[in-house]
Design goal:
The protein is mainly α and 180 residues long. It has one domain. It has helices at residues 11-26, 29-35, 41-53, 60-78, 82-96, 109-127, 130-143, 146-152, 163-176. Helix 5 (82-96) packs antiparallel against helix 6 (109-127) and helix 7 (130-143) packs across helix 9 (163-176). The longest helix has 19 residues, at 60-78.
């Protein structure tokens, strides 16, 4: 049984990462709301995550928001709204960012960059253009503060797998670490 190396992670670090994830998700919320105007679950997840980033307690409301946004994503995908589904997944990832674990596992990188990658994929699906995802990654790269990059660098590089979203996570990871 392997023991994971602990990562130094403060509540301030969690708030900074969550604020970044919220900024990434907020940019695609309209893609979800255009397809599902009566479903506020992704918006609630983002608002709850923003409250945490602004200083509220890390609470069950964050987990509930993430689960609700994930269900909204599933329902959007099942009804043929792929871009809306990815936008809801970005909201789910924003709420989940508050639960980044202090263990040096590559899988934790998705807590930091998952919202950005899902948002980039949402743009790609909405436009049918892979360059839209790349352009979006450039925009969200600019949103990453030195504090976000500092937290990211405490973890191993993003793992392989995860389909297109995993590919986008890895691309942004390499870029933010200064290797691209």
């Amino acid at each position: 049984m392997s023991q994971e190396t602990p990562v130094e992670l403060s509540m301030t670090d969690l708030r900074v990462v969550t604020a970044y994830a919220v900024a990434c998700a907020h940019g695609v919320l309209d893609l979800f709301e255009q397809a599902k105007p009566d479903d506020d679950r992704p918006r609630i997840a983002i608002e709850t995550a923003q409250s945490f980033a602004d200083g509220a307690r890390r609470s069950k409301a964050l987990r509930d928001g993430a689960w609700s946004a994930m269900r909204a994503a599933k329902e959007a995908r099942e009804s043929g709204h792929a871009a809306a589904s990815e936008a809801a997944n970005a909201a789910m990832a924003a709420a989940g960012a508050a639960f980044l674990h202090p263990l040096a596992k590559a899988t934790q990188v998705k807590h930091i960059l998952g919202s950005a990658a899902h948002a980039a994929h949402a743009h790609e699906l909405a436009t049918g253009d892979p360059d839209a995802a790349v352009d979006h990654l450039k925009r969200v790269r600019a949103l990453a503060t030195p504090a976000v990059v500092s937290v990211l660098r405490r973890y191993p590089a993003a793992p392989l797998g995860g389909g297109r979203v995993g590919e986008l996570v890895r691309r942004l990871d390499v870029s933010l670490r200064g290797n691209a």
